[in-house]
Every structure is written in C-alpha cells, then in structure tokens.
Design goal:
alpha+beta; five-stranded antiparallel sheet; 14 helices; 15% helix; globular; S8 family serine peptidase; RCC1/BLIP-II; Peptidase_S8/S53_dom; signal; repeat
Length: 868
C-alpha cells in the first residue's frame, strides 16, 4: 500500500532524500577511485590482500559468459574485454566472478521498475564483479582503476562485527516518559494491530567469518560418503566433518547427516585426518590417534567391535607421525619409522603374516624407516625414507606392484620404484609420486584409473603419461586425481566418472589425465566425490561428484560435475535458543538465507553476537521465559557477510517494501592505534546495495560504529568518502547512554546523562558520531538472549549488557519493524525516507552536546504523528 499524499504532507517533515535535487544519474564512484580508502596502494591495514570488487562502466557492458573453465569476459567493445583479460593474466591465479548470485535479468528488471517508481537513476548491480588474486592486489588495483572501462576497483575491507561484551535489563522497551528511563515504548506499538511486526520481514546481516582450511597435505580427507577437514575457526586446529553419519563417521552424536561442515566436539590441535568407507581418524600434535565411526572389524583399534559416534583415543598408541585408513583397516607410522596396523586382516593386509583380524594395533614386521603409508580396499603400501615402497595384502589385480597377482601377508618390495616421494591407494589400484614430479600407477584399470589410455590392469608400476610438476596425488575408489604446479596450479583427473567425480563438467569416463580445475593446492578423492583446496592466501574448498549424503558440503544433496563451493561461512546464531524455537507459535522460526557451517544450536563464538542481535527484536514474547522482542511476530531472516556480496544482496532479494534490513557490520581500523570505526556504506559496493534497497522501499538500519570518531572530520578519508556522496538512504544509528538511577546503571556508577553519546572509556567503546547519524539506541545495558556453549543450559542464557552500536542498531531495527507493522495494518506503509524523518522528528531528544547521534525513537509519538 502507498501512504496517502495528504497524510504524508500533513504529518511528515521533509526528508533528506526529498530535499536533494533529483539525481540525473546514479552516483559515479569514479570520482573517488583514486582517493577512497582501499582503491590504491599502499593499502591501509584492515583491507584484504587477496580480494577486491570492481564496478565497470555501465555503457561498456562488460560481462562474463560461460561457466567453469570456459568462463570469459565479453564487452560491447571487444577491446575492453581483451585489455581486462590481459591484466588479469598478468596476475597468476586471479579469478573473476559476478558479485551477485541473482540472475542479470532479475537484477535489471528490479532496477528498471524501481527507477520508474522513484523517478531517479539507480546503480546497476550487474556492473559489479568480485576478483580474487593470490598476490599483487595493489598492482591490480592500480591497473584496474587506470582503465576508462572501470568505474571503481576497491579492496574488500576486513569488516568487523559491530560488537562489544555483553551485560543489563529491558529498559529499552519503556515509554518515553518512564520514571525508570526513556525507551522506544514498544508496549504501545505491540498493543496495536500489526504492532508486533506482523507482515514485516526483518533481516539480520551479521559480520561473517569463514573457516580457514589448514595447509598441511593431510588436513583434508574424502571417504565413502563423508568428508573431513582440519580448520582454524577460533585460533586452534579442529576437525570439521560433513556427509553421511549412519555409522558415526562424522564423529558428531545425534546427527543423521549434514550437508554443511560441523565441528567435531572435543578435538583440537589436530595435524592430520583420514577418512575411509565409514570410519575416520585424526592425528593430534601430541602423537595420539583418535578414531570414530564403524568398528565391525576392529578398525578403530579400541579393542572392541562397537561403532563409536564420537572420537575415542586408540589406547597405548603414541608417537604417531602419519596414518591411513582403508575401508575396514587402519595403519599408523610411529616416530621410530615402524608401522602398526589393526582392523580387518583379509588377504593379510595388516602385514603380520596372518589373516586374523586384530582389534588393537599390532606391529607390521620387517618395516623400518617408514615415512608414510596408504591403505586400499584390501592392500597396504608403505613408503621408506630411501624412496622405495613396500606393499602387502591382496594382489589379484596387481595392486601390490610386485609384477604378479599373488597375495602377500608381509611387506614385499614394489617393483621398479626407488624414488617415491608420496604414495596413495584406494580400491584396487595404487599411485606413487616420484621425486621427479611424475606419477607411477599400477593395479586394477577397469575404468582407466591408471591413466594410460587403456583398461588393462598393470602388475608393475607404469608412468602415467602427460603429467609434469606434480605435487599432490590422491587415489579414489576407481579414479585418480593429482595436482600439478604447472600453469599456475591445476587439478587433473582420470578414471570412472559416473557421478561426476572427475569434475570436468561431464559424467564421461576419462582414460588419460584431464585438466578439471584451477587453481588448486590440495586434492582428495573419495569413493565417488572429490574435495580440493584452492590456491589462495585465503583458501576455500571446492567439491564435485556424488552428493546424495551431503558429502560435497555445499548445503544441498545435489550432485555436481564441476566445482561447487563447500560452505565455510560460520553460523552466527543459536536458533535452538528458547527465544527462537518458541517463535513457531507466532512468526515461525528464524530462516537462514544461505547455508552456514556449524551446529545451528551454536554460534561461531561464545559471545553469540548474532543471537544477541536477533533476539532484541525477534525473541518470542509468549513463551513465559526470558525477554520479549520488540517485533516478535516479524519474519526473522539471518545472513552473514562472509562473501563478496556482503550478505546484503540476498537480504534485498528476499525483502519487499516495508521490510527492514539490519546491518550489524562496520569498518574498524584499530591497526593505527586510533580505534576509529565507520559505517559499512563507505565501501562502494555496500553503498550501492543500500541505495537499491532503500529505492525498493526497504528500510536499511546501519550501525555507525564504535570508534568515538566524527563522520564530519574533513581530514578523515573514510568520513570524506561517506559525506561526499549523496545520502544512501540508510537509517544510521549511534550509541547513546542508557538510563541511570542516581548515576548508576548496569555499567556502574558515575554514568553520564541518558541519551548522551557513549564515550570511549575503560568500560565502553565510544559511538561514532556526526551529522549523518540519524537516531540513537542504547549503547549499554541492552538485555537480550545470548549463547554460551559452556553453560549448563546454553539455550536459556541471557545477557544484561549487550553494548555498542550493535546493541543500538539491534534495538532500532525492530522498532522500525513495529512501526511498519502498524502502518501496513492501516494500509499506509512508509517509505524509508518517511521512516527516518518521523523517527527523528518525534523521538526523545538527545541531550545537548557537540557529538550528534540524534534522538531516541518514540514509537507512540511516531505512530500518533501519522494519524490513525
């Protein structure tokens, strides 16, 4: 619905946006591409050294066509595309993709419609692209910004969640004239039709963090239908798992399967992982081995045949330096170069001269100076320090490489190899990487997994043709994958491809090595899926192949024939908290706009910033526990900024006129010691997204930041960048002092007057301030729900002091949702400009002083000012 023009004219003051002359064109970032922070070198601290976004001039019509390895740049003038491609080629490993995940057609249609409605030109989000570059970003920025086809290229800032520690009570719901202190008068709005946010979508966009896959070669593993990685999420190495869990192979009790990575509880300081058919293993830095999953043959080594859904330590095994898992047996290399084995001993694959299973580790006789091991279906291989190999177990298909098909119950020399650097085995074939960076292969070849162009099994090692500069190898059940350092690093694969496990975009079997992905750093093959780590300063994981159990980790169960991204953005919300689960009786549970890594019942950190932000507005008010959200019936959406689109694009796509987007992100610059913070819109891509959102009728609530600095500072390049542009239309929020009784509030005694800007002190970070800041919320003493994994009942934890502009913005966003809910019920939705004006003009005034953060909104006064 559209608000009555007579009502709007009579009841609302003129907005900032309305006072500005119509813009004949969208803001041209080109006038700032040599001055805005992050557009040139030397880059200030806090900017990415590997990622940037670039906006091309709309009239140049620069686009990407194709997908995967066939993607290429095109342009209205082909010279533009050639020049851009040459520049990118000058930076090995550089990749470019569209910033938005929405289709170009959808984005254009939305922009054209909004331009018609608003009578103004709007930014074209199709002109924005994201570029990743392993090294040399400052040179690339300079090269791109020098091109006439580029409007602006800017390094992606390392944004910081606008967060502080937590502590106090729900005074922010008070009436403006309350003797306990002024609030937004939530109860008044909540009592009106629509006043609990009915029909309004509130999206919380949090500062996102990603899992960081670790570097060592054994930090990644693929099993039958599950995957493992060692990742750093909070400063130490942990194991994350995804895929099938029918036998406990994920190490996470109570989870049937997961299509995104989840952390395995209790494992830290891990240096290597191994994944087999349905069991898994981890090697810790202290030399101990922990295992979990299927144990029917004793492959977990704990002296039982009981499956283990969570990790158990292999008793009596210490000093381990390497390990390998086959479908039902396990091998470990000890620090003295000897090997121990356990589990199934069919065909003598434990190497102890028998075929008797063993439920605990036993020595493999005759082996010394072993550096690493590999385990296939029914055979085992060891690499010795002198570069020779020993193998034992089943030999029917030539998998032992001894020149015949005999089984061997003890280690036997592999023929013709004296310079092996690495060995890998799976199914009934084996691969070895030589010091000369070539690959040798032997064994079963039914699907061409040996890569020699035939399906003839090989009883002795043969050289895989067409390979050079190989640095990593991985044998899958009936296919093979390697990593080459040529051409800026690439993955090559061959063999069976019925599930797309080769990653070349087809399901066609390949008899010889075929390039399938670039750039890559590590490759790991499973039964019918592959996981690789990309080559980048900030690496990510890609996967392809079978995905029926979520083993690709991309948030789906859809198989892929080429690389799909494993979800590494960390969950920021505990949606199992009692304040969210009970929303099912009112507005429904929170909705994550994109898949996220981690248990949805835990946030990415014990502070629970996302949980706290969302609960201020979205906590259930009818469950008889905890707090009452300001807009408890609003539809609550959750998203993070752990990608180039900053999480805003998905929020825009799923929001309509009248809805609210909360940006709980800001730019912090503590590296220079100043501690300054700025609102996220200083970043050109975020600015354009905010402009589009507000043009669509979505109110964007933006945290000003916790820097104790002024946005009117003419000597501050970040502030100048913001203030020299036309108003983005966002409702910018500062942090004000909460009410005190005799100078005492939750932060202690001697507090300043309520509604004065929070100033930097030992107990608080000061609010960013200035003429651009529209309104304030409490910067201290905001009571909310949080999450804390160490609590006895983590889903029932609360804080009395959520602080900073995070708390203030989390308070204002649902205030807007409550206001719009009332207006929607009346058929009188407000525009974002009208929302801003009515909240400023009717709010409880800021205390006099030099630092402007605006009034505290008053819902009663705001609603009454626009009539009934």
């Amino acid at each position: 619905m559209v608000v009555s023009m007579a009502l709007a004219a009579a009841a609302l003051p003129t907005s900032h946006a309305a006072a500005e002359p119509p813009q004949p064109t969208a803001f041209d970032h080109g006038i700032q591409k040599n001055t805005a922070p992050g557009t040139h070198g030397p880059l200030p601290a806090g900017f990415s050294r590997t990622e940037l976004t670039v906006k091309f001039r709309a009239d140049r019509k620069i686009r990407l066509t194709g997908d995967g390895r066939t993607r290429r740049l095109v342009a209205h003038d082909s010279r533009d595309a050639r020049i851009l491609q040459r520049i990118l080629d000058d930076y090995p490993g550089a990749t470019i993709r569209r910033m938005s995940q929405r289709s170009e057609t959808a984005i254009t249609a939305e922009r054209v419609k909004l331009e018609k409605n608003t009578k103004r030109a709007l930014p074209d989000l199709n002109a924005w692209f994201a570029v990743a570059v392993p090294t040399g970003i400052e040179g690339l920025l300079e090269d791109l910004n020098a091109l006439p086809s580029v409007e602006i290229a800017q390094s992606i800032p390392e944004l910081t969640p606008s967060s502080e520690p937590l502590q106090s009570r729900q005074l922010y719901r008070n009436p403006a004239n309350s003797s306990a202190g002024a609030g937004v008068d939530a109860d008044y709005a909540n009592a009106l039709p629509g006043g609990k946010g009915q029909g309004i979508t509130l999206t919380d966009v949090e500062g996102g963090t990603n899992l960081i896959p670790r570097g060592p070669a054994n930090s990644l593993a693929s099993g039958n239908a599950h995957s493992l990685m060692v990742a750093d999420s909070i400063g130490h190495d942990e194991v994350w798992a995804w895929g099938a869990n029918n036998r406990g192979q994920l190490g996470i009790s109570g989870v049937a399967a997961t299509n995104t990575p989840w952390k395995i509880p209790g494992l830290t300081n891990v240096i290597a992982v191994s994944a087999a058919q349905d069991h898994s293993a981890a090697l810790l830095a202290d030399g101990t081995v922990w295992m979990w999953g299927e144990n029917g043959s004793g492959q977990l080594g704990d002296s039982t045949t009981t499956d283990r859904p969570t990790p158990v330590q292999v008793p009596g095994l210490t000093g381990v330096t390497a390990l390998a898992t086959g479908p039902n047996h396990t091998l470990a290399v000890l620090g003295d170069g000897t090997v121990k084995a356990w589990g199934s001993n069919s065909y003598g694959k434990l190497g102890n001269g028998t075929t008797t299973n063993t439920l605990s580790p036993v020595p493999v006789p005759g082996l010394t100076d072993v550096t690493n091991v590999a385990a296939g279906l029914n055979h085992s291989v060891a690499r010795l320090g002198d570069g020779t190999l020993r193998s034992w177990g089943r030999g029917t298909s030539g998998e032992l490489g001894t020149g015949n098909t005999a089984h061997s119950y003890v280690p036997t020399p592999v023929s013709d190899i004296t310079d092996a650097d690495m060995v890998s085995a799976a199914g009934s074939h084996t691969l070895a990487l030589t010091y000369g960076a070539t690959v040798m292969a032997w064994g079963l070849n039914t699907h061409g997994q040996l890569g020699d162009g035939t399906t003839v099994k090989r009883l002795s090692p043969i050289t895989v043709p067409g390979l050079s500069n190989i640095t990593d190898i991985s044998a899958g059940s009936d296919y093979s994958v390697v990593r080459s350092a040529r051409a800026g690093t690439e993955a090559l694969a061959w063999g069976n491809n019925n599930s797309g496990q080769l990653g070349d975009g087809t399901t066609v079997k390949r008899m010889v090595p075929t390039v399938v992905a670039t750039p890559v750093d590590l490759v790991r093959a499973g039964k019918s899926h592959t996981v690789v780590k990309t080559s980048a300063t900030t690496p990510e994981l890609k996967a392809w192949g079978s995905n029926t159990n979520g083993q690709l980790g991309d948030g789906t169960s859809i198989s892929a024939t080429s690389g799909t991204s494993v979800v590494t953005r960390l969950n920021q919300w505990n949606t199992c908290h009692e304040e969210f689960t009970s929303r099912a009786t009112s507005a429904g549970p929170p909705i994550r706009l994109r898949p996220m890594a981690g248990d949805p019942c835990e946030s990415g950190s014990d502070q629970g910033h996302g949980t706290a932000s969302a609960a201020v507005g979205g906590a259930a008010d009818d469950n008889g526990a905890g707090i009452a959200g300001i807009a408890p019936y609003a539809k609550l959406q959750l998203n993070t900024t752990a990608d180039a689109a900053w999480g805003i694009d998905a929020a825009i796509a799923t929001s309509q006129a009248g809805d609210v987007i909360l940006l709980e992100i800001a730019k912090a610059y503590p590296a220079d010691g100043s501690g300054k913070w700025w609102p996220v819109e200083y970043y050109a891509a975020a600015y354009d997204q905010i402009v589009l959102a507000t043009a669509k009728g979505i109110t964007v609530v933006e945290a000003a930041g916790n820097g104790d600095n002024s946005l009117d500072d003419a000597n501050d390049a970040y502030a100048v960048t913001i203030m020299d542009r036309p108003d983005s239309g966002a409702l910018m929020v500062g942090a004000g002092e909460p009410p005190s009784v005799a100078g005492v509030n939750c932060a202690g005694s001697g507090r300043p007057l309520a509604r004065t800007p929070v100033v930097k002190s030992p107990t608080s970070l000061g609010s960013t301030y200035g003429s651009r800041v529209d309104v304030q919320g409490y910067g201290l003493c905001v009571t909310t729900a949080i999450t804390w994994s160490g609590a006895a009942e983590p889903n029932k934890v609360y804080s009395v002091n959520f602080t900073g502009t995070s708390a203030a913005s989390a308070m204002i966003a649902p205030t807007v949702a409550a206001l719009q809910g009332v207006m929607k019920a009346r058929g009188q939705l407000l525009t974002p400009a009208q929302v801003r004006d009515v909240l400023r003009s009717t709010g409880t005034p800021q205390q006099p002083g030099p630092r402007h953060i605006g009034p505290l909104p008053n819902l009663r006064a705001a609603i009454e000012s626009v009539g009934n």
